[in-house]
Each structure stands twice: as C-alpha cells, then as structure tokens.
Amino acid sequence: MPWAMRLLWDRLEAVKPPRLLVLLALLFSTGLAQSALELEVLAQTNQLRLARGLGALLWDSLAYKAAVGHAQDMLARGYFGHDTPEGRTPGQRMAAAGVTEVVVGENLAYYEGYPDADIPRKAVQDWMNSPGHRANLLKGDFTHLGVALVRQGRKVVVVQNFVGRPFDPVLKRTSAQAQRTLLWLSGEAPGTLGIFLDRQLFAQVGPRLDLSLELPPGSRLEYGFNDGRGWFVAPEGQGGGWQARLEVTQAPGVALRLALPSGQYALAVGAEPRFWRRVVGPETLEVTLPGTLQFLWVGRLQGQKIDYTHRIPLR
C-alpha cells in the first residue's frame, strides 16, 4: 500500500535535491540497521534506484524508529494500513519520532508463511509492480530511508519510511525562555490591512479588526493598505478608527543554531507556514522562538516560489 505526502504552501513548487552519489559500501557501514533483513530491503531499493540514475538512499534512524513502531502496532492490534485506528498518519508518526522534513512517504507490505530470507526481495519486487509503491521507491526527492521488518508467528509486516532531506539545517537545539510578542488589533480599517515584518508581508486582516496575531520576535513592524496597484505604508490609525497594541511577555521556547548552505531561503513560523524572513546562504544563524509559535519552517526560495523542506517543532 503506497503513501506519500508533499506539503506545498503559498504557490510552492517542488525543487529536486541534487543526486547523492553514494557507494553501496557506505550504506552498510552505518551500523544503524536493526537487522540484516531490513538492511537488505535498503540494498534492494538502492540497486533499483542506481540502475535508473537516481541517488542511493541513506539509512535514517528516526524514520526507522517510526517504521518499527508502526509495524509493531499493526501486528499487536490486528490492522493493516497507513493510518492508525485513531487516524494518525505516516507524517504524524515520523514527526513524533523526530523527523523534521516535510517530504515523507511510506510503503507497506504484509506476508504470511514466507521464510524471512525471501521477504526483502519479494517485498521490493511487489512494490515495483504497483504504481503507487513504485513511485515512492523511485522518487527523486527522497534521500533517506528507514525499514522495519517485524514478524509475529507466521505474519510479517514490512514498513518503508522515506524522507527527503536535501540538507540538515539544525546544528544545535536547546530549551530556552523566549520573547513572545502579541499584536492586538481592534476597530475598523478602511480596507484590508497588511502586517509587514522587515518589509515582508506577514499577514492580511480586516477590515473589521478584533483579533490578535503572534509575531516572531525581533522584527520591524509596519502596516499597509493595498489600493489595487500595490501596498503603501499606513501609520497606525490612518484612514479610520483602528488601533494596534503590542504585548511582550516571556514564554518557554527553543534556541536554535541553524546552518544553511549556499542559496536563498525562507523562514516561516506557525502551525502552517506564515512567511517571516529571507536568508541568503551560506549562513549560520541563531534564533530563539517561543513554543507558542509551534513550528519554524525552513524552505528554499526561488523567485516567488518556496519549497518548504523542514518543519522544526518549537516545543
């Protein structure tokens, strides 16, 4: 059963990562695989990818953790599917295991009565004969893989968890107190009000205002209206009876040290990405954000298109 998830936001388009030219010998030197059978599924998968000019997948311990948990849960509770009986998806399970990447996928296989030695090759062959599974096996955006092969009596479940990791931005992550900034807006604006941070549009609200927005700390705040030709700066209260008030407090959060390779990047915050700022790499930066913002998103920026690749939890 195939499953793949691609979260694209704000007119985003996929940007394929560069191919990983990895010798198969390196894949067997990590020591992270739980069993030779699971590592054999990885090897079989990479043989197919390399034969088609695709990059080999590297073993990923976090994806493996999620795969093992799902395989054990399916056997223990007697179901077979990508979503748990409670509705938990592959993406949610991988995020809970510590995977921060946005591009993830999953393949499943179930067998009864087959000897262990036959299962890796059979599973990969069966997936290749299914269009959805095949698409995951040969997806160019995927760079890492975790495989679980779990037996319970005559029953065997195989789970492949795929991850697209073009780069790993997090150098260091520690708990910290962070500044929390709330913008309270009230009254009636003459039209749609734009909230700008460092001259970048962060949100559009109004015209009736009775709400609060949480802002990332340390940004220069401005307001604007759109007259149909573009945005123009609007000092607080201009053009009608609307008011703005900032409330700054301290809240538990996360201090992050990020390393971005060469290129242009977008940072966003929120449960869904709300664009915050641009960064030109290579760059190492440190940010401290409150947990109430939920996530820091990192994406590649190409013109007006953003491919968000990482979603880093702030709690």
Automatic annotation (TrEMBL):
A Pfam family annotated for this chain is CAP
- Give the InterPro entries listed for this entry: CAP_dom, CAP_sf
Question: Where would I find the SCP domain in this sequence?
Answer: 43-162
Which segments of the protein form a coiled coil according to its record? Answer: none
Gene3D superfamilies assigned: CAP
| Alphabetized SUPFAM superfamilies for the sequence | PR-1-like
Instruction: Quote the protein name from its UniProt record.
Output: Uncharacterized protein, YkwD family
